[in-house]
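QUALITY CONTROL LOG
STEP: pairwise intake check
CHECKER ROLE: data steward
CRITERIA: each record must contain a sequence immediately followed by its structure tokens, with no blank fields

ENTRY 1 OF 2
RESULT FIELD BELOW
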Amino acid sequence: HAVEKTRMRYPYYFIRLVFPENGEIEVEENPAPVIVRKAGPSLLLMSEESNYHIQMFEYDGRTLYFHIHHAFTDGRSLIKYMQTVIYLYVSEKYGITPESPGVRLPGEKIPDAETEDPMLKLFEEVKNMPEKTEVVKKMDADGGKWDKQYMENRVAVAYFLSVPEDSFVKYSKDVDSSPATLPLVFMQK
């Protein structure tokens, strides 16, 4: 019940990916229930067995396991999401209203800042980047061949980035991002 009540406050965690004929991946609302079950063999997220959700919950005694696809969890709202689920669970299970300032509850307005991509704030040029086809044409005209190799011949491209770990982790925390996401942003930039 707590997970489904949380849907009203965090609709962006109750989604599925769809693959239309144009080849672009799209995100849409997922009305199917999120899987909440006793811990067992792993289920594949974003598949039929997980109702195509990006998340699922499991429990084993007093332990709660939360599985979610990392690509959808950059920034701070994931902790707030979990606080809301636990708050609603405790409220319903024990019939109490715990004192929990800062917990985001269903019915509250979702501020724009909560759903904005924090990386787009850092790199305005990413937000205003031309369509992929224009970039490919521009790169080909300038003699850039890696993009054509990948796009047309599906030749894998590997990047090796070397950044001092302490600096990288500090920077990641300072911009409220995931260390796993930042290399992609740097490559895009």
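ENTRY 2 OF 2
RESULT FIELD BELOW
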Amino acid sequence: MKISNCNGEFDCHSWQELEQLIKKSSLNPPDDLWISENTEYPCLAILINGNYACVHYFLDDEGDMWQSVGDGDKDVTFVINGGKSDLPADSVIPLEKAIECARQFYDTLDKPTCLEWREL
């Protein structure tokens, strides 16, 4: 898997490597992780700020994309494309749920089924 975040680009050769990278990113928030295979799409993007996350799934560059549906109680600031932005509480999920999504994506490259999505 190819991973890019605020610190550069990396190759992860196992699920354990990817999981550790996600957890490490949560300790130095905020971060913006992009996960893909050897091609640009499909792609899973995880915005991280401590124990909060927002996940986006991009099927292609044709506009087929989805955002996680959350039930947070407050808006959370994330890094997006190098700048900071507040995302609404209804898109924020716990970091552990984002890790579960990353695991499903790692295994299948499909849109994870472990959470509810809104089409963008």
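INTAKE CHECK: passed for both entries
DESCRIPTIVE NOTE, ENTRY 2: The helical segments are 15-27, 95-108.
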